[in-house]
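Predict structure. Chain length: 132.
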Amino acid sequence: MLIVALLASVAVDSTAAFLAQREAQAAASSLANDLVSLALDESSLRHHGSYRLSPSRLGRLEPWSQRTAQERLSAVFEPGSISVAISAAGPAAVRVSVKGSARRVIGLIGNVSGQASRPVAAEAIGHVRLSG
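Prediction complete.
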């Protein structure tokens, strides 16, 4: 019974880590798609017809990105462990990196590393595709 309990705890914690990874990837993708629209350099679009990112606008959106990621990932990550980095990945693309510590469900039972959480990282790039 002890071996079955040990294996079950490892399976539950592995599933929780997989869920945290998927949630981090979804949050990074969602933020990248939002930021590529919100950081639009409107004057470049109006005057030159080209879609470009405004670096200053992108920089001002970083606190909003951090709060959004905290809210979205608070159920599966340790409080205060979530960090978001945003940067331009070209003239019309945004790179978002999300890092944090995923909570273990079972805890230290079956945890060979002895840590109460597991590091998780995800990255996504949002591109602009203009239609028409």
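Summary: The radius of gyration is 19 Å.
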